Amino acid sequence: MHTSREPILPWWAAGILLGLVMTLAVAIKEPLGVSTQFVVANGAVLKEVAPDYVAEHGMLKEAKYHTPGYGWWFDIGLIVAAAATALLVGKFKPRATCEWARANGSVARRLILSFIGGFILLFGARLAGGCTSVQFASGWAQLSLSVVPFTVGMFAFGMIAARIFFPKTPDIGKGA
Fold this sequence. Notes:
Layout: H1 11-28, H2 36-49, H3 51-56, H4 70-88, H5 98-104, H6 107-127, H7 132-141, H8 147-165
Helix pairs in contact: 7-8
């Protein structure tokens, strides 16, 4: 069991592995994406409760937006693989960092704010007709021009949001 705080793979090896996975995905089917499955889930429910709406909707009338496909298995695989890896390396333990607790208090607040931030990011990406994971990871892998302003904006607004939500974040270098 891996119990060290050191990563299992060095950053450069993980980057190469991710690049190879992205290349394989594009070669086999299409770039990897996660948030599309939220649209598929909504489309599948809407097809059952409001079939006329789905038939007239520009995007939802396409079968890929209301019929679960490989993406469902990809999303389930991400969850299962993350849990299995955390168990194998002995790090499957929900926790808040000491820095978080000193600066901001409760774990519940962290979970709530993380959920809200993730929802806003996902909503914005889907509103723009995209997907955060495809735009960021696959976009860079494909050298897409649109990924540059997206990445700059995502990091800039992430830093602004972090400063607004967590103004008391301590200097972690002082405690060491």
